[in-house]
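ok trying again, last paste got cut off:
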Amino acid sequence: MTELLMFLLLIALIVWGLNRNHRRQAPSRMSGSFDVEDRDALRIRGEVAARRLEAARPEIRTAPAPRTRHHLSRA
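nice, full thing came through this time. structure:
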């Protein structure tokens, strides 16, 4: 019976010690800074903006260069 009481006392002391230690710790939070810019979001916004500009830009066609006698003799 005494062994059982000592065992229960030991368990109670361990639980009390763990709870006491747990309450002393600072609240959990992320390590590092909190004011970090999300680079992925910035990159995606930039890519979407570039696609919109590319789609809105009219297609530019260039005229072929005039043929010279040198080109005509080879063809």
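cool. Residues 2-24 form the longest helix (23 residues). The mean pLDDT is 79.
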